[in-house]
From TrEMBL:
This is DUF4191 domain-containing protein. The chain crosses the membrane at residues 36-56, 62-81. Keywords: Membrane, Transmembrane, Transmembrane helix. Residues 211-235 are annotated as: Disordered. It holds the Pfam family DUF4191. The lineage of its organism: Bacteria, Bacillati, Actinomycetota, Actinomycetes, Kitasatosporales. It comes from Streptomyces xantholiticus. InterPro entries: DUF4191 (IPR025445). The keyword Membrane applies.
Amino acid sequence: MARKANSDSADAAAEPGRLKQIALTYKMTRKADPKVGLVVAGVGIVTFGVFLGIGFLIGHPVYLGILGFVLAFLAMAIIFGRRAERAAFGQMEGQPGAAAAVLQNVGRGWTTTPAVAMNRNQDVVHRAVGKAGIVLVAEGNPNRLKPLLAAEKKKMNRIVVDVPVHDIIVGNGDGQVPLKKVRTTMLKLPRVLSGPQVTATNDRLRAMGDLMSNMPLPKGPMPKGMRMPRGGKMR
């Protein structure tokens, strides 16, 4: 009984936190998407109205009304989630370090290391390791990123010769991947490594070390005014 009471009190305490988070997400989304409230409410009303109307036609308005209410709530949650995600990507796009923030949320099975290579112009290469192999995700000026990526790929191929190395340049130009599609692109890559092989690859790369071992960086998008220290290791 005591454990159940403690569990109920913990859930009750967590509920205001969830509601506060939803409210904060809505406020942030509304700044970039002023019509989000109207769109989400419209989806809910139309969904509920359709099922209620069908219920009256077939003589079961109560049952269809309850079903319509549940499905309307679900549809509203889906639409709100998509528009919130789109607004978040819109605010992040173009900011240094935005790709690193996306990589941190790719999903289970991926190990992400931000800023494994960087130049003085803040062109950055991040690394993710998963069952698809090694994925190098670069953001910055495409012309400056090509030699940076080539050097990093050469190093990866030298250290883990039996692991495929993919590269992605974040952007909206030809041959580039938009920020909002980075996660989807990575998840579509063929899985060629087993779990133990992924672990072994991470161990090799961890033993090699990277830029993060020598220079602490804040999580998420990097400040625009940040510069590499003179004594820092450049690649």
